[in-house]
Each structure stands twice: as C-alpha cells, then as structure tokens.
Write a structure and sequence with these properties.
This protein is mainly α. 60% of the residues lie in helices and 5% in strands. It has five domains: 217 residues, Beta Polymerase, domain 2, CATH 3.30.460; 144 residues, Nucleotidyltransferases  domain 2 (Four Helix Bundle (Hemerythrin (Met), subunit A)), CATH 1.20.120.330; 146 residues, Four Helix Bundle (Hemerythrin (Met), subunit A), CATH 1.20.120; 225 residues, Beta Polymerase, domain 2 (2-Layer Sandwich); 127 residues, Four Helix Bundle (Hemerythrin (Met), subunit A) (Up-down Bundle).
C-alpha cells in the first residue's frame, strides 16, 4: 500500500514548501512539520493557495493538531465575529473568511486522513447551518429598526429555512450548492418600526439579502451557491411562502418527486413553536399513514429514468451519477423510506446512515446488504470529497490527469490507479445490484429494436437532456426511421420551446392531476410523432409543443388528448401539414373539440347550409347579449375554417371548392352580422322612415353589402380579408321612428360603424374578419356608407379605370332586393361603357406594371404566385381587360364575377381561343392550389418548379398577344 507521495507530488510539495519559506511571516516552527505541510500542499491547490498567503491559518491548523482538537464550536466562534459587524459589506467579508478557513481545516484533516468521512460531512453541514442561520439572524435584526418585527401567535416570527438534499441530511458535500426553501408562519403587518409593511414583503427583503450574503462572489470568494428551485412552483414561485399557502400547495399540487426531495428536508433554525408547526404541515405530505404502494409506480419510473440517463450520457466516470454511484445508493434508501415511512416513524429521518440502520432493524433490508450499501456509499463519498478538495470545485468526475489520479492513490492508499478503479468497480457493482432489486419492474434493459422508440420517447420527456444529447437522440431516431433530417437546424428552436414548456409547468400552476396526465401524454406524443410519416419530426415536435404550451393550464384539454388518442393523432396530422392550423389551434384551443370526430372533421357542411347552421347556433344566444353573439360568430368561423383546412390537407375537396366553402362561410357570417347590427340600431333608434317608391322600407332595411376582390370572385383563402362596400337607398333624411330618433343618413352611418365593430373588435377568439373599405367611392376619403344614387353617379362619371376593373369582381352579398337589382344593372352598364381599346390597354398595363414593381417579391429561386410576371394578377388583369373591352357587344360575359367562368365564356364567344382559355384556367387553378397550401404553411413564396415556369410562360405569351 502506498504511504508516501509519488515522485511528481513530492516535487510539487517541495516547490510549494520553498514558496512558503520565502513568505515574510514564515514561522520557523513550521520546519518541524515540513513533511506534513509538503504533503498537504501537494494534495490540494485550495489548501496551498490559502495557507501560503495566510500563514496564521497554517499555524492554527498545526496548533489544533497538537491539541487533538477534533471538533469546533462553529456557533460560538462565528457569533463572536458577527457581534463586531456593523454593515453588510463587513458581514460578507466575515462570512467568507470564516467559511474559507474552516473549509481549509476540513480539507487538511480529510486529505491527511486525520478524520473519517462521516465526521467530514457532518462538519461541512454544521458549518453551513451556522453560516446560514447567523447570517439570517444578523440580517433580520438589521431590518427591524426600519420595518419593525413580524409578529405571530408565539411572538416574533422567524423566517424558517428548510435545508434540502445533503444539507438536510447533515451529509453536505465539501464544495456543494445548498438547496433552500424559505417560509414563515402567518400573514400580517410588521410592528414597531418606522415603516410598517406586510410580513411577506419583510421576508422577501430578508430572503434576498440572505441569498446575496451567501451566493454573491466578492474578492473573498463565495460562501455557498444557493439554489432555490425546489421551492413551491419552482423559479416562478414566491421567494418566501407562508405556512397556509405552503400547505395548500403540497396538498393540492405537490408531486411525487417533491415528496422524494422532502424526505431530506430539515428545518435549520433553532427549535421553537413555529418549527414544530412547520414539521406538522410537511410530515403528512411526505409520509402516508399506511404502506405507500402508491409511490411504487412513481419510483419505478424514476428508477427507469436514472438507468436511461446513465446509459444516454455514458456516465462511467461520474462518482455520483454513474451506474452504481452515490445517487443510486441514495435512491435505494430514500425509496424504502418513502414506501414505509408513514407506518414506521423511525424511518422519518433525513440521515442516510440512520435510515439504513432502521431499515435493517425493521427487516426491510438485509443486514449484510445494508452494511455493504453503507460501506460503498461512504467510500464513494470520501472519493467525492477528495475530488472537490483538490481545488474547492464542485465536481464528481474522476480525474483523467495523472496528478489527480496520483493524489487519489496517496489519500486512499493504492499503489496505482488501476487498483483504485478495481475497488471503485466493486463498490459500484454492490450499489447497482441493490438498485436493480428495488421496485423491480418488467423492463428488460436489452430491449428489442421495436421497443427503442418507446424508450427514446420516455427519455426525451423524462430525462434532463443537454442539447448535444438531444441532437444525438434525434439523429438516432432519424436513422432508425430512415429519415434524412438536418438536426442542427431545428434543435435550437426545439430547446427554446422545450425549456419554455418545462418552465410553464411551474408558472402556469399545473397541478398534480395535470402533471400526471402530462407524464403519460408526452412520451406518447413523441412516440406518435416519430412513428408518423412526417418529413421533419423535430419541426413537428416544435409545433405540438406550441399547442400544448397553450393548453397547459387547462387540464381538461390534456385529458381530452390522453383519453382520445384518435384526437391526438388528428392533431399531429394537422400540425404536421400546416403551421397555420397549429397557430389557429394554439390561439383557440376550443378547436381541439373538433378533433374528436374525424368523420365530421374532414367533411365540411354543405355550402348552402352555412347560414342555417350559424342561425341555429345564434338561436341559443339572447338577442341582447352582443358579447356572446360575437364569440359565437367567431367560434363558428374558426371551427368551420378548421374543417375546411382539414378537407384541404387530406385532398377531400378540390381547390375551387375550398374557395367556395370559405366564401359561403363568409357570406353566412356577413348576413348575420348585418342582422345583429340592424337589431341593435333599431332597438336604440328605431327604423328609418324614408320613402322608397312610396313604400316604407322596414323589412328589407334599405341597405346592402357589396363584396369585391376575392369575396366578390368566390376566391377567398385562409386569412383573407373582406373587401366590402356599404350602400343604402333611403330617399330623404327623415328621423327614425324610435324613442331616440336620429336622421336616417346618420342611422345608416352608425349601422355601418356597428357592422365594422362586430367584424373587427378583438375578443378572446380574435377578430372576425379584417375589413377593407378602400374600394368605396373616393376610397378612405369617401363616406362609410354611400347612397345608391351617389354610387351610380360615381361609377359612371368619376371612377378610374382600375375601379372599373375592381367592379368586374364585385357582386351583391347581402341586403334588400331593390338595391340588388339596381347594382346588377349598374355593374352591367358600367362594364358596357364604350372604351377605346388602345387607351384601355395602356391603362391596364400601366397599372399592372406599377403593381408588379411595388409588390412582387419573387426571385430566381422563389416565385411570387400573385405578383410575378405570368402569375395570378396577370390572369386577373387579362380577364378584367376582356370584360371592359367586350361586355358592350357580349353582355353575357359579365354575368359571372369569378375568373374561371368568365374564361370559359370568353372561349365560347371566341374572344380568346379554347386552348388559351384552358391554359389560363390550368395555370389559375394550379396557382390557387399552391396559394392555399402556402397559406397553410404561413408562407408567401413557393420554390420555382418546371411546371410553374411553364404556366408562367403560357400566361405571359397570352398576355403579350392581347395587351401589347
């Protein structure tokens, strides 16, 4: 067995001794301990860095050694120092210097094997408790003169501090984070200070100062890294919580892993009535009164995840996290405590060693097994402490450099590193054997290939993967399913969404039921995604996470997807096909209800039934409840649009019928909006009493809506706005006949405003439609609603050629029969006006060129289907030119407002050839199909293909024939 330093360490120790001898405060008495000092300096940079500068520390260490001083009264010594502190800067300095000296002392005694590892972890833990408690006390006293003292049933309220993990078990690592939770007994206001504040405000100020006093890095270093993420609601939760709120949280939302973590929770404050009260609150959450078989399934899942994490990360050199490491030993003991602790109160201890003794005494674990677990656990804790004491760094990784390997050999008594590794493997095997025996499940580690997807899905949800690990997992999944996938392109986006999603589990207060569903649902989601035919599963994952993010706080929707996996499958299919659908469902989760019945989802209602269906929906709403009417309209539109999109994605409907359905849907909504607005206006002001051909206009309202553009041409797409013009035919300006009469012209103006309000106000379900009124006479400068006579005069005398082009795609949508007839006659008359072909050609081509220059976005790789040369707009302008040029001689071509039927009619009349008509129709339908798909992809440009280029050339050739 090795008893002295290796040659390399001996040389290092000698060099560092020489540095010490050159110090101005070198004490000749150090010569007596030269060998020991050289050994301590060689084994730890941390010891050398401090003792070579502060020689009084080294002198004190050697003095204690001579006096055989094994224990230190940290409480008394720190209290004496803090009585001299008058400000927070001095507090920080004293805390750090006190910590550094005593950690040097512990490292000195550990590395020179002057004390056991049990003594070492106990000393580190007690040192931490005193630094935390006395800092807390000092800061508390510094706040009370200004803010007063919080008071409770038993006198002044302390801020109670729960130490979690190894701190709670009095087993703290040498260089470790400390996990804390802060709480106080009850709400109220402080008393006796210059400015009274609420208890919570007081304790938040105190907590913030305490964290700073421990966590902040100064010239003297850091006391401890403080981690507050184990508190209720995690990072999104309040920094300090009162007892009632904490009790409510753990009773209603506490999760199994929090029970597991709370096993180690210890109140660090000195005992008092408040500490007893807190213990009584926490105990029922941690321990059940009976043998807790309910925890077994959760522990089985946790165990499986530990195994997968070790396998995934290849943690072979990690003394804590690797197979058979410290974490597995802790898991064995704490799991048995969790299962049996409610029935056997002796197991309700934070100490692993004490718990093992009790488990043996209760015959829950064999004595020999318990002894082996403890022996291996303590040996690995010794190794862990050594690794951290070399340089005061938080690490559990075995060294790969010979110097640190030699240090381990020296401290642990091995002749070479291979002997150390053999012993380590023996301890790992002993722990792992017990780990595998715990909560045995039927999972076979050597899973067949068919089960790898299930395993990967579980890992993706349950393991805390780094980004590089997730990339590796994605690559393996892609290879398994023979997918060509650019992983790096989407992993950043995935991790941003994934992190936000995980954070939201706390911020959105997802309860135990919601988390339980999620833990079942998420692996299934990932499994279905990667077993689907998606060309990019990672992008699909991102879309599904976006939807789930929107419904995290709505357990009913999570339950819907878990219990109706057919609906989940439809969600995955639709989100894979369309980011637009993903966006719609994310913004309006009520659409998830539509996924329950695939038959109706992919079969939109008959085009002529939209009005009846909407009317039936509105019959269930009180006429005076405008808010609910608007929500009903929006819900109807959203659900019907989703069904149309689903039919589109699955190719149930051809392109023209997609537009027809979207247009009929909009028409039905326009009819109802006009009726709702009319009812509201007449309830308030009465009806207009103007005379039309000697008859009162009450039944038909004397009002009409004209649709232009895509609405007029039966060509609406997803997300299209509505180009509308409002007309009325009220003769005169008499007052309305209600209790609050207004002039008729003003009535129609207010009616138009009300219609726009219903369309465009943003509710919880968004706006109904965007409405564009710029095609009304005089555009934005014109009246919101125009008298039919004024509209006739404008179209015949003042309208520009481009406005007559727009009239080609205008049609009557809703309103009274009189205006309908007048409008149809006017439209035909305007389109039939005599025009010089040369002038018309010039004006149409100039306008088209201007539009292309301002709006076209295509390039050699991507095509702008509408504005690029040979695109949709060229076809539309060509059709409009033909209507304006030939309607006078062929009025039948003006019957229709859609390009498809106009082109057919132009061919019948030999105005263009049949072949030209067919080519234009083929191009137009192909463009519209791609336009719908682009809308579903939230995209504007499409990749250029030979087929699209051919269509462009055909359209351009025909354009040049007739317009150049």
């Amino acid at each position: 067995m090795q008893t002295s330093l290796s040659k390399e360490l001996a040389e290092l120790g000698k060099q560092r001794w020489d540095c010490l001898t050159e110090h101005k405060d070198f004490d000749p008495q150090f010569n007596t301990y030269q060998n020991q000092i050289e050994q301590g300096f060689a084994l730890s940079e941390f010891i050398f860095e401090h003792c070579s500068i502060k020689t009084d520390w080294l002198r004190q260490l050697l003095t204690e050694q001579q006096l055989f001083a094994d224990t230190i009264d940290y409480a008394h010594e720190l209290n004496e120092r803090l009585t001299q502190v008058t400000d927070e800067v001095s507090l920080h300095k004293v805390l750090r210097q006190f910590r550094n000296y005593h950690m040097v002392r512990i490292a000195w005694r550990d590395l020179l094997n002057m004390q056991t590892i049990e003594s070492s972890v106990a000393q580190v833990s007690e040192l931490a408790v005193q630094l935390i408690n006395q800092s807390n006390y000092w800061l508390y006293q510094s706040l009370t003169p200004r803010f007063g003292t919080p008071q409770g049933e038993h006198g002044p309220l302390p801020m109670l501090i729960l130490g979690m993990g190894k701190l709670g078990g009095k087993e703290l690592n040498f260089s470790s984070d400390i996990d804390l939770i802060f709480t106080y007994a009850n709400q109220g206001d402080t008393q006796g200070g210059r400015k009274s504040i609420e208890h919570q405000q007081f304790f938040i100020k105190l907590a913030q100062k305490l964290i700073t006093s421990l966590n902040q890095i100064t010239a003297d270093g850091q006391v401890f890294r403080v981690d507050m993420r184990l508190r209720p609601f995690g990072e999104s939760g309040p920094l300090v919580m009162h007892f009632d709120a904490m009790e409510d949280y753990y009773q209603e939302q506490g999760r199994d892993w929090e029970r597991y973590a709370m096993l180690k929770a210890r109140i660090l404050n000195p005992p008092c009535e408040y500490t007893q009260e807190l213990s009584q609150i926490l105990r029922p959450f941690i321990y059940r009164r009976y043998l807790d078989f309910s925890a077994i399934e959760s522990l089985r899942t946790m165990k499986h995840m530990i195994q997968q994490e070790v396998r995934r990360r290849g943690l072979v050199n990690n003394i804590k996290l690797g197979q058979g490491g410290i974490r597995e030993a802790e898991f064995v003991v704490q799991s048995l405590q969790l299962i049996n602790g409610g029935r056997e109160s002796s197991l309700q201890t934070q100490s692993l060693q004490a718990a093992l003794l009790e488990l043996t005494a209760l015959d829950i674990i064999p004595k020999q097994s318990a002894q082996q677990i403890l022996k291996s656990y303590l040996w690995m804790r010794k190794v862990e402490h050594c690794l951290q004491q070399f340089a005061d760094k938080q690490t559990q990784l075995l060294p790969d450099d010979e110097l640190d390997q030699s240090r381990l050999n020296t401290i642990l008594g091995f002749d070479n590193y291979s002997e150390f590794m053999q012993t380590l493997q023996h301890h790992h095997d002993a722990i792992h054997q017990q780990f595998l025996l715990l909560v045995k499940d039927e999972t076979n580690d050597q899973q067949p290939s068919a089960d790898k997807l299930n395993q990967s899905a579980m890992e993706l949800w349950h393991l805390d993967l780094e980004q590089a690990e997730a990339q590796l997992l994605f690559i393996q999944l892609a290879e398994q399913h023979k997918m060509t996938l650019s992983v790096e392109e989407f992993t950043d986006e995935f991790f941003q969404l994934y992190s936000t999603f995980k954070d939201s589990l706390q911020k959105k207060r997802v309860g135990q039921r919601g988390l339980s569903i999620l833990n079942q649902l998420m692996p299934l989601v990932f499994k279905l995604i990667w077993s689907s035919n998606s060309h990019n599963p990672i992008k699909l994952q991102n879309r599904i996470l976006t939807v789930l993010q929107a419904i995290l706080g709505r357990t009913a929707y999570l339950q819907l997807l878990w219990e109706n996996q057919g609906a989940l499958g439809q969600l995955i299919k639709l989100c894979d096909a369309s980011p637009w659908v993903t966006e719609q469902i994310s913004r309006f989760p009520l659409l998830l209800d539509e996924l329950l019945n695939p038959v109706t989802l992919y079969q939109p209602i008959e085009k002529g039934q939209y009005s009846d269906e909407l009317r039936q929906s509105l019959l269930r709403v009180e006429p005076e409840d405008l808010e609910l009417q608007m929500e009903t309209l929006r819900q109807f539109k959203l659900t019907q649009q989703l069904k149309i999109a689903a039919a589109d994605i699955s190719n149930v409907l051809p392109v023209m019928q997609i537009s027809d359905h979207l247009t009929y849907l909009a028409e039905a909504i326009i009819h109802q909006v006009v009726d709702i607005a009319w009812q509201q206006m007449t309830d308030k002001y009465g009806s207009p009493t103007c005379q039309i051909q000697g008859l009162r206009n009450i039944q038909d309202k004397g009002f009409a809506v004209i649709g232009y553009g895509k609405m007029g041409g039966w060509e609406l797409g997803y997300g299209s706005d509505l180009d509308l013009v409002f007309l009325h035919n009220c003769q005169g300006n008499e007052l309305t006949d209600g209790n609050k009469p207004i002039e008729s012209a003003n009535f129609y103006f207010k009616l138009a405003q009300r219609i726009l309000h219903i369309f465009t106000i943003k509710t919880g379900l968004g706006w109904l439609y965007e409405v564009d009124m710029r095609l009304r006479p005089s555009g934005n400068a014109g009246l919101l609603v125009c008298h039919i006579n004024g509209y006739i005069e404008y179209q015949k005398s003042e309208a520009w050629t481009w406005e007559h082009q727009a009239l080609c795609r205008a049609r009557f949508i809703s309103g009274c029969a009189d205006i309908h007839k007048i409008f149809v006659d006017l439209r035909l008359a305007v389109l039939s006006l005599p025009r010089k072909t040369s002038e018309l050609t010039s004006e149409v081509t100039e306008m088209r060129e201007k539009m292309r220059n301002h709006l076209a976005q295509g390039n050699e790789y991507k095509l702008d289907l509408k504005q690029d040369q040979g695109g949709v707009a060229d076809i539309e302008f060509l059709v409009q030119f033909m209507l304006l040029a030939h309607t006078k001689e062929n009025p039948q071509i003006a019957i229709w407002t859609d390009n498809f039927r106009v082109l057919k009619e132009l061919a019948k009349l030999n105005i263009i050839t049949e072949n030209e008509s067919d080519l234009l129709i083929q191009a137009y339908l192909e463009y519209r199909k791609h336009t719908h798909r682009l809308a579903l992809q939230n995209a504007k440009l499409i990749k250029t293909t030979p087929e699209l280029i051919s269509h462009q050339k055909n359209v351009t050739r025909i354009w040049n024939k007739y317009l150049t």
